[in-house]
Design a protein that fits this description.
The chain is built from 4 helices and 2 strands; from the N terminus they run H-H-H-E-E-H. It is mainly alpha-helical. It has a two-stranded antiparallel sheet.
Length: about 180
C-alpha cells in the first residue's frame, strides 16, 4: 500500500506550528497595536513583559520546528494525492506551502534581528540568546516594520491554506485532509 499521508512527526510539527503561529500572531498584533506603553497600561508591566518574553520564546521554537520541517520535507517528499487532484490545486498548494515555509523561517529571524538592533534581550524562556546584530535603533524600527508586514502575509497565506483545506475536506471530499490529520 503506498504511503498516503505525511509521517507522524511531520503532522505533529504541522499542527504544533499552526497553533503556535495563531498565538504568536494574536500576541504580535496586540503588542503592535498597543505598543509597549499601551500594553503596559492595559495589562500591567508584569503581563506585558511576559507577553514579549513568550512571543520571543515561541518565535524561536517556530524557527527550530520550521527548520526541522523543511529538512524533513526535503528528505521525504509529500505523499501522493489519492485520488489525484487537478494540477491547478497541486500547483496552488505547492506555491502556498513554499511561501509559508519561507515566511515562517524569515519571520522569527527578522524578529530576532529587530530585537537585537533595538538593544532588547532575545529571550528563550529564562535564557538570553545572543544578538545577531548590534544596536541600531533606525534599523530596528525598519525591521519591526518588516516583521509586521511578514505577520500580515503569514496570516493571509495561513487563511488561504486553511480555506483550501476546508474546501478539500467539506466540499470536494477528495482525501487531501487525510494526508495531514491523525486518526
Amino acid at each position: 500500500m503506498p504511503r498516503d499521508r505525511y509521517g507522524a512527526l511531520q503532522r505533529l510539527i504541522h499542527w504544533t506550528v499552526a497553533l503556535l503561529v495563531l498565538g504568536l500572531l494574536a500576541i504580535g498584533f496586540t503588542l503592535a497595536t498597543l505598543g509597549f506603553e499601551g500594553a503596559r497600561d492595559t495589562f500591567g508591566i508584569d503581563v506585558t513583559n511576559l507577553l514579549y518574553k513568550y512571543h520571543k520564546t515561541f518565535g524561536v521554537i517556530v524557527l527550530g520546528l520550521m527548520t526541522l520541517r523543511l529538512l524533513l520535507r526535503l528528505a521525504k517528499p509529500p505523499p501522493p494525492y489519492h485520488p489525484p487532484i487537478p494540477s491547478f490545486y497541486r500547483t496552488a498548494g505547492r506555491i502556498n506551502h513554499w511561501a509559508l515555509y519561507a515566511l515562517l523561517l524569515a519571520q522569527p529571524v527578522v524578529g530576532w534581528a529587530a530585537t537585537a538592533a533595538g538593544g532588547f534581550p532575545i529571550e528563550f524562556f529564562d535564557a538570553r540568546l545572543p544578538p545577531i546584530l548590534s544596536k541600531d535603533e533606525a534599523l530596528s524600527e525598519t525591521l519591526y516594520g518588516v516583521h509586521g508586514v511578514l505577520g500580515v502575509a503569514i496570516l493571509a497565506l495561513a487563511a488561504l491554506h486553511a480555506s483550501a483545506a476546508i474546501m478539500h475536506w467539506l466540499v470536494r471530499r477528495d482525501g487531501v485532509m487525510h494526508r495531514m490529520t491523525f486518526g
